[in-house]
């Protein structure tokens, strides 16, 4: 018989060493004769609870009841009943004495009395948490009584335990028995182990052992009484000592008092069905219960209900008990986001709740969910991730960013929505420092090269600002290839005044990376022409930059004249360097709002403009100047509006799947193709450079005079300038002189539209005009009559012969 019972209890092994769990410290209290220990799994170290019950012989009544409890707990499954994991029964011999111990392993839980002391809740928050717990226990008791026709027999404070997520669960099934209501006249005991129930918890019919009356009573009669005892112990804060203490109702909430009295009715047939207790709307419907209940049935809600709920959740979470929010709501919210049942506004609530965690807990409970969300196809969630990246970006490790986050974020660079491209660009301010050099050079710079000729002027501007910020994270060779080309060839020649201003300030902020030769031959000639720029802010910044770079060159001259071998001078010796870098940093972290969008620009361009504001001399100040020149220099009024930046059309993050857009051919698109420009020869090169710099001055002036000729259709993906029809046309030449000559060829610039390769057909300016004219002759429609005339001549000559 003993072997059979051991098999029923699922005994495994012959010794405690075979138990796949480690037994830890015990809790101060437990139900009945059991002891409740903390424990961990030997396999993965996960926490568990281990309940132990010992007896001197196999016939011990406590052991028999314990075996019944183990069997019942293993077979009864419910969300509000303790989850069974493992059990074993072990016999130890000490001399002539033998001792039998039952070990039952469950999910990690804590006695309710200990958890209440730990939480220390008071007032309204305490009552709300008690309402949630009683709701769960009532569901468990109702399940046993109404669905399973079982009687627990001893519902009280010690029979309730609490999980790490603060859920209440019912256990202590030692007395659990079937309700035998069919044999009403039978006098035998219905509860085999009723002697284990404390006298203070027994209803009057059980005290009298009136089994006939018990069988005639409804199945919930005994457990309804026990639930009343639990309510009394909860609100009084003391363990029930005698039945008369149940009459003390001073601590019972008024909204629950009537139901409490019905649970403890002296007549078993009139006791309240536990399932009816849950319907008490006045007590059980509070902020905490409603919030948790909504989260648990989230999949049944429609999108409007979800959106409304999650928009209110951040403010609601501040009113709920902090520990319950972090241990119960936060895991529910993270799970719903991971499995796609939560709407995008839920991310705001998740990040707010996560801010209340310690750094270690945040890494464990919040970051894994965020990393998984980057792979989501929901565009709204991805936009929300980028908008709040400043809240969690610093917590991401370099390995996570480089391997798991960036590959998904990078698809936004080529998205059809300008708003998403803008957010992706801004996110790089936080993510780029965590990327490897290989990722920056092989991927990021290619995307930035494309964005610097984006159709949105503000995106081009912020791309220049970002390059100035991440310059310190580029290796020396990449800086040589990228920075000067990006700032002078593109930014300083942009038709958008804030973009030119950003280019000047980016050059100043990164001056420590340029030697004196580069400053004298490439930077100063490009900047000095902007001192007569139509925009006053560009002129002011250009004057400052010219003075700064002239001072650097003067220092170089003084050191070389004095014979000092250390000619490595730069911005590090200039005062105000921190201010320039500080401008670039702050300009990209300021978020633009739709209400801040500028009038002459489309919404996609206006929000980024707010992000180029500086501490010392804000680019936002140039917006008024830019808007003043908008009608005269860029003629934005004639442009059709592009698609809304908030459009959700598309497939999530962008149109690229494996790398850059298909518009770029070859594996070396972007600034990786740029080789260091050849140093010009003494006098002829200087003359060519001077001629090349006429373009930034001439172009804005001509645009001011002829606004119609410089209008740029924003609905196309092509760059705004004619000579930039080819993405790389403006920087393909190896030296500045080769890319600057066509700037003076204004009459021929209008013919470049038909030949996208005309701008880079030959490196020398003198050889470029000839292919343009030839291409123009071949490409016109008048060539057909010429070909026809030649055929007529041939026919006539052959006919003459």
Structural class: alpha+beta
Please report which band the strand proportion falls in: under 5%, 5-15%, 15-25%, 25-35%, 35-45% or over 45%: 5-15%
**Low-pLDDT residue intervals, each spanning 5 or more residues:** 1-14, 571-683, 689-801
Mean model confidence by pLDDT: 75
Radius of gyration of CA atoms, rounded to a whole number: 39 Å
- Terminal Cα separation, in Å? 126 Å
* Record field, number of beta strands: 10
> What's the story with the biggest beta sheet?
5 strands, antiparallel
Silhouette: elongated
Enumerate how many helices there are, as a single number. Answer: 35
Strand order within the widest sheet?
Answer: 1-2-3-5-4
Question: In which range does the helix fraction lie?
Answer: 40-55%
Biased composition (Basic and acidic residues): 661-671
Organism: Linum tenue
GO molecular function: ATP binding; protein kinase activity
Biased composition (Low complexity): 756-771
What do these coordinates show?
By secondary structure, this protein is α+β, with helices and mostly antiparallel strands. Helix content is 50%, strand content 7%. The protein has 35 helices and ten strands. The protein has a five-stranded antiparallel sheet, covered by helices on one side. Strands 6-8-9 form a three-stranded antiparallel sheet. A two-stranded antiparallel sheet has the order 7-10. A hairpin with an 8-residue loop joins strand 1 (21-26) and strand 2 (35-41). Helix 24 (497-509) packs parallel to helix 26 and helix 29 crosses helix 31. The radius of gyration is 39 Å and the shape is elongated. It starts with a helix and ends with a helix. Mean pLDDT is 75; it is low at 1-14, 571-683 and 689-801. It comes from Linum tenue. GO terms for molecular function: ATP binding; protein kinase activity. Residues 756-771 have a biased composition (Low complexity). Residues 661-671 have a biased composition (Basic and acidic residues). Residues 700-714, 792-801 have a biased composition (Polar residues).
């Amino acid at each position: 018989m003993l072997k059979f019972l051991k098999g029923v209890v699922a005994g495994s092994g012959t010794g405690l060493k075979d138990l796949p769990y480690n037994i830890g410290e015990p809790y101060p209290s437990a139900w009945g004769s059991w002891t409740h220990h903390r424990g961990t799994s030997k396999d993965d170290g996960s926490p568990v609870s281990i309940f132990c019950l010992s007896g001197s012989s196999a016939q011990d009544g406590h052991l028999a009841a314990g075996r019944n409890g183990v069997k019942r707990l293993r077979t009864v499954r419910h969300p509000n009943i303790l989850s069974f994991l493992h059990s074993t029964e072990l016999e130890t011999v000490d001399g002539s004495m033998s001792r039998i111990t039952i070990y039952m392993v469950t999910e990690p839980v804590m006695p309710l009395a200990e958890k209440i002391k730990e939480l220390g809740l008071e007032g309204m928050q305490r009552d709300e948490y008690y309402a949630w717990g009683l709701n769960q226990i009532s569901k468990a008791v109702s399940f046993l009584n109404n669905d399973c026709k079982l009687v627990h027999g001893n519902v009280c404070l010690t029979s309730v335990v609490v999980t790490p997520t603060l859920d209440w669960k019912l256990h202590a099934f030692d007395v659990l028995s079937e309700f035998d209501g069919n044999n009403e006249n039978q006098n035998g005991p219905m509860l085999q182990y009723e002697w284990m129930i404390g006298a203070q918890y027994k209803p009057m019919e059980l005290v009298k052992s009136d089994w006939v009356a018990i069988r005639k009573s409804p199945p919930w009669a005994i457990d309804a009484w026990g639930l009343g005892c639990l309510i009394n112990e909860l609100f009084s804060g003391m363990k029930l000592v005698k039945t008369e203490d149940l009459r003390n109702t001073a601590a019972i909430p008024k909204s629950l008092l009537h139901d409490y009295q019905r649970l403890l009715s002296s007549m078993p047939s009139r006791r309240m069905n536990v399932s009816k207790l849950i319907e008490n709307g006045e007590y059980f419907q509070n902020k905490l219960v409603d919030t948790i209940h909504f989260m648990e049935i989230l999949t049944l809600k429609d999108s409007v209900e979800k959106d409304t709920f999650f928009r209110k959740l951040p403010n609601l979470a501040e009113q709920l008990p902090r520990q319950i929010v972090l241990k119960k709501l936060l895991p529910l919210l993270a799970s719903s986001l991971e499995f796609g049942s939560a709407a995008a506004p839920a991310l705001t609530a998740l990040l707010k709740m996560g801010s209340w965690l310690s750094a270690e807990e945040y890494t464990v409970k919040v970051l894994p969910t965020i990393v998984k969300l980057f792979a989501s196809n929901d565009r709204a969630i991805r936009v929300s991730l980028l908008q709040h990246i400043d809240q969690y970006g610093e917590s991401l490790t370099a390995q996570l960013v480089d391997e798991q986050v960036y590959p998904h974020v990078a698809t936004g660079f080529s998205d059809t929505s300008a708003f998403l491209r803008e957010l992706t660009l801004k996110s790089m301010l936080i993510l780029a420092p965590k990327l490897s050099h290989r990722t920056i050079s092989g991927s990021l710079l290619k995307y930035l090269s494309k964005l610097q000729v984006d159709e949105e002027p503000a995106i081009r501007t912020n791309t220049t600002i970002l390059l100035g910020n991440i310059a310190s994270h580029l290796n020396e060779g990449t800086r040589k290839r990228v920075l000067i080309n990006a700032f002078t060839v593109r930014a300083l020649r942009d038709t958008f005044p804030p973009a030119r201003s950003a280019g000047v300030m980016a050059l100043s902020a990164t001056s420590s990376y340029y030697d004196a030769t580069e400053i004298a031959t490439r930077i100063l000639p490009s900047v000095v022409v902007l001192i007569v720029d139509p925009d006053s802010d560009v002129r002011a910044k250009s004057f400052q930059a010219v003075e700064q770079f002239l001072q650097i060159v003067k220092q170089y001259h003084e050191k070389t004249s004095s014979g000092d071998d250390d000619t490595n001078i730069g911005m590090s010796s200039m005062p105000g360097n921190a201010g320039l870098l500080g401008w670039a940093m702050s300009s990209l972290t300021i978020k633009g709002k739709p209400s801040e969008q500028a009038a002459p620009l489309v919404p996609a361009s206006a929000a980024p403009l707010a992000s180029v504001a500086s501490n010392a001399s804000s680019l936002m100040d140039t917006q008024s100047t830019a808007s003043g020149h908008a009608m005269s220099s860029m003629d934005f009024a004639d442009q059709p509006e592009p698609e809304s930046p908030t459009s959700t059309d598309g497939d999530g993050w962008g149109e690229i799947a494996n790398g850059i857009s298909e518009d770029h051919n070859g594996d070396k698109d972007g600034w990786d193709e740029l080789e260091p420009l050849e140093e010009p020869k003494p006098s002829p090169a200087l003359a060519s450079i001077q001629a090349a710099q006429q373009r930034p001055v001439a172009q804005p002036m001509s645009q001011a005079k002829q606004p119609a000729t410089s209008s740029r259709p924003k609905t196309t993906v092509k760059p705004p300038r004619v000579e930039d029809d080819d993405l790389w046309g403006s920087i393909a030449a190896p030296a500045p002189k080769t890319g600057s000559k066509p700037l003076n060829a204004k009459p021929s610039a209008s013919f470049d539209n038909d030949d996208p390769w005309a701008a880079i057909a030959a490196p020398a300016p003198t050889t470029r005009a000839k292919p343009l004219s030839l291409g123009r002759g071949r490409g016109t429609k008048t060539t057909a009559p010429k070909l026809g005339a030649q055929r007529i001549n041939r026919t006539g000559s052959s006919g003459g012969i």
